[in-house]
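Practice problem: CENP-V/GFA domain-containing protein
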Amino acid sequence: MKIFHGSCHCGQVRFAADIDLGAGTIRCNCSICAKLRLWSAIVKPEAFKLLAGESELSQYQFLGKTEQHLFCRHCGVRPFGIGHSPRWGKFYAVNLACLDDVTPEELSDAPITWLDGKNDNWYTPPRQVRQL
Ligand SMILES: [Zn+2]
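Answer key — structure tokens:
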């Protein structure tokens, strides 16, 4: 476990999150992960702290609206989302691309779990992942 700090592009939204990158990260082929090319770490709510910019966040939801996709209304970057699933309970999905103090080595060493969200088939990885 290590505390990482992250932000949106313009810096108005800032957060800290306790992340164990060695425990795995998430890539997914669902409609929004694919369009955003999201690479996330899943953390418990108590491991996430919004440090600045709550009033700068806009929320996007779709389908079952179980997830809040939060993005900065100034720069459009989505630093994290908040969701709920049978697998993780309530969770924060931290956008690893928004971490400011992670090293390239830490990121490249982080194991990736591939999710087939496109087919709502969460426990078997999709057959094709290179394009994600
Ligand atoms: Zn911003």
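Discussion: Residues 37 and 132 are 6 Å apart (CA to CA). Students who identified this feature from the tokens alone can consider the problem solved.
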